[in-house]
């Protein structure tokens, strides 16, 4: 009997995008259930009461696996906080987040170098960890006056390669939809257009 897999997710969640991509890449069948983040389901709270994160497993040799975990961890720890501040803050806090995020992008751009994917020729954990942010780049550019497309052409070319993968194309939301959602949020919460 085939094991039932359920994905509890939110359409704009970068972590959920990673999971959908990984499941598609591994050709794992699953049931998708959209979560209301303001009213989390009992199943979500029961299955992941502390972190509310979904694990992604990638099979590589031990050194590559360690490298991939390091960079995925770097992305998790260094990207989320400044990215959230880019759209949820204004003034000095937003400016500080902008500087921090640009440094992260420079580091990732350097790590990618001339490789096709972060892991070389193979799409893997680090690509999955970072590609979800791509659907938010337009929002970051608009609300924080960033120029990611012009300043990081290697990362943009990498993102375009990732988007050619069916799993990525299916998982990432449209950038315009993300921008509209964030703009609506900023109007309501911050009173900013």
Automatic annotation (TrEMBL):
Q: Which GO terms describe its biological process?
A: glutathione metabolic process; toxin catabolic process
Alphabetical keyword list: Cytoplasm, Detoxification
Reactions performed catalytically: RX + glutathione = an S-substituted glutathione + a halide anion + H(+)
**Major subcellular site:** cytoplasm
Domain GST N-terminal: start-end pairs: 3-83
* Chain ranges of the GST C-terminal domain: 61-181
Q: Which GO terms describe its molecular function?
A: glutathione transferase activity
Q: Determine if Cytoplasm is one of this entry's keywords.
A: yes
Example GO CC term: the record gives: cytosol
Protein's cellular compartments: Cytoplasm, Cytosol
Top-level taxon of the source organism: Eukaryota
Q: Check the record and name the Pfam families matching this protein.
A: GST_C, GST_N
Q: Does the keyword Disulfide bond apply?
A: no
Write out the similarity annotation.
Answer: Belongs to the GST superfamily. Tau family.
Protein name (database record): Glutathione S-transferase C-terminal-like
Q: Which organism is this entry from?
A: Arabidopsis suecica
